[in-house]
Write a structure and sequence with these properties.
The chain has about 450 residues and is an alpha/beta fold. It has helices spanning about 10-25, 35-45, 60-70, 85-95, 105-135, 150-160, 175-185, 205-215, 230-235, 250-260, 285-290, 300-305, 320-335, 345-355, 360-375, 385-395, 415-435, 440-445, 450-460, and strands at about 5, 25-30, 50, 75-80, 100, 165-170, 195-200, 215, 225-230, 240, 265, 275, 280-285, 305-310, 340-345, 380. It binds adenosine-5'-triphosphate and magnesium ion.
């Protein structure tokens, strides 16, 4: 399907072309003069323009020049009722893509041209789909996880993906927000349409506006041609607005309007265009706090978070760590060609114990580094970064000289209650000695009431 603009002061021609090409499934608009066409070009983007040469106001050739300036990508076809070699040469010289003569054969001449343009548009779209398909097969939408929280998220994705409801994904940096956004798109009916990502934090405000909504030639210095915005580029598909928490308040108002009305207006245009886009947003900020502090609009928040998805930090789903490690190991084994079979238990223990402030991204980088450094067949302690080893030592290995807690348990098991009882008795005797036999003072030393002290003393026969 292509977007066509028909320009002719002869109504019968306009009607003929409009009806014919609409029937063939194209989006067709009509202008009855060169000026009217110019106005349309100021507010809309077309794939094909079919224009008469001789019109009362401005000629088709002038319109052609204007169109090529504002929308260099569009195909321009000139038609004429009085064919002369001169006009034909003019048409070609000024960059018309085709030239056709009005009469019985007009449709026969135009149809293949329109057909060709819409074919090439289709090919372009398919190339995009192919790229996405490759990305899918290389595992980009591969979300790993077996924890209850991740399972619940998988289920939620499957339920909500097919619909077009908006999704707000929250979670710390590196928890997989973008991965989830892609998975939603891949599992939706929009899978064959574009998935476009915009990092809202990466653009200054005015640039973000023209990036999202497009602009018309002359809207600002440097706007040398009409340009489609990402909302329109994502038409039919999904637009992923990343780092939405960094969007300025002014842009938030503009985004709110677009979501409310389903229409976008390019910068410098007077016309609005309908868009059908599923909007998925993500942030690692706490939007409730942003709202409370006046940096995020509450009304926009409610529009965006129809379906909220929160990705828990990795330290709250440690059972996913071994699976993720295996997944990344496999991935880097393939890319490096190194035949590393696994991870030594001691190294895995450290990986599972670490608190992962950078979440899955940090784990991914850690495994990549370990694979690169490893000279044996298994990833060992030496392959892990200092911070991960230190964390373990500080949190789990106090007095154990870096040995694992498993070392506490002798082969035949241990009588824990008996062990504790011995400790209690030793402390009681120790406190009494320090207190010179004064029981109330001993109780104070052990931070217990005199009553409790008496209870323990009786229990241990002291
Ligand atoms: N559950 C997962 N399974 C497999 N890979 C994952 C998973 N979660 C995250 N990753 C990987 O970790 C890296 C970071 O993920 P992603 O970019 O989606 O995080 P993010 O939440 O968008 O982070 P940021 O807030 O920093 O943009 C990516 O390479 C991604 O492939
Ligand atoms: Mg991200």
């Amino acid at each position: 399907m292509a977007r066509l603009l028909i320009v002719d002061d002869e109504r019968s021609i306009c009607e003929l072309l409009e009806i014919t090409f609409r029937k063939e499934g194209h989006r067709v608009e009509v202008a009855s003069s060169g000026d009217a066409a110019k106005r349309k070009l100021e507010g809309q983007i077309y794939d094909i323009i079919i224009s008469d040469i001789r019109m009362p106001d401005i000629s088709g050739v002038d319109l052609l020049q204007y169109a090529k300036e504002v929308s260099p990508g569009c195909v321009f076809i000139l038609i004429t009722g009085v064919p002369t070699l001169g006009t034909a040469i003019d048409a070609v010289n000024f960059g018309a893509d085709r030239y056709a003569i009005k009469g019985d054969k007009l449709l026969d001449e135009l149809r293949p041209a329109v057909q060709q343009v819409s074919e090439s548009l289709k090919l372009k779209k398919e190339a995009g789909i192919l790229r996405r398909e490759i990305r899918r097969l290389t595992g980009l939408d591969h979300i790993i996880g077996s924890s209850d929280s991740m399972r619940a998220i998988f289920e939620l994705i499957q339920t909500i993906a097919p619909q077009s409801s908006r999704v707000l994904i929250t979670g710390e940096s590196g928890t997989g927000k973008e991965l989830v956004a892609r998975a939603i798109h891949e599992n939706s009916t929009r899978v064959k349409e574009p998935f476009i990502t915009v990092n809202c934090g990466a653009f200054p405000e005015t640039l973000l506006e023209s990036e999202l909504f497009g602009y018309m030639k002359g809207a600002f210095t440097g706007a040398n041609e009409n340009r489609e915005g990402l909302f329109q580029a994502a038409d039919g598909g999904t637009l992923f607005l990343d780092e939405i928490g960094n969007m300025s308040l002014t842009m938030q108002v503009k985004l709110y309007r677009v979501l409310q009305e389903g229409k976008v207006r390019p910068v410098g245009s007077t016309e609005e265009a309908d868009v059908d886009v599923r909007v998925i947003t993500a942030t690692n900020k706490d939007l409730a706090k942003e709202i409370a502090e006046g940096r995020f609009r509450e009304d926009l928040f409610y529009r965006l978070s129809v379906i909220p998805i929160h990705l828990p930090p990795l330290r709250e789903r440690r059972e996913d760590i071994p699976l993720l490690v295996r997944h990344f190991l496999e991935q880097f084994r393939n890319t490096t060609g190194k035949n590393i079979e696994g991870v030594e238990p001691k190294a895995m223990e450290r990986l599972e114990a670490y608190d992962w402030p950078g979440n899955v991204r940090e784990l991914e980088n850690t495994i990549e580094r370990a694979v690169a450094l490893e000279t044996s067949k298994r990833i060992s302690l030496e392959g892990l970064p200092e911070r991960i080893l230190l964390y373990y030592q500080n949190h789990f290995a106090e007095g154990n000289h870096g040995e694992s807690p498993a070392q506490l348990i002798p082969e035949g098991g241990v009588d824990l209650a008996g062990h504790i009882s011995e400790i209690e008795r030793a402390y009681l005797l120790g406190a009494l000695e320090c207190a010179g036999g004064i029981r109330t003072k001993a109780a104070q030393l052990l931070k217990m009431t005199y009553r409790s002290f008496r209870h323990y003393a009786k229990k241990h026969g002291i």
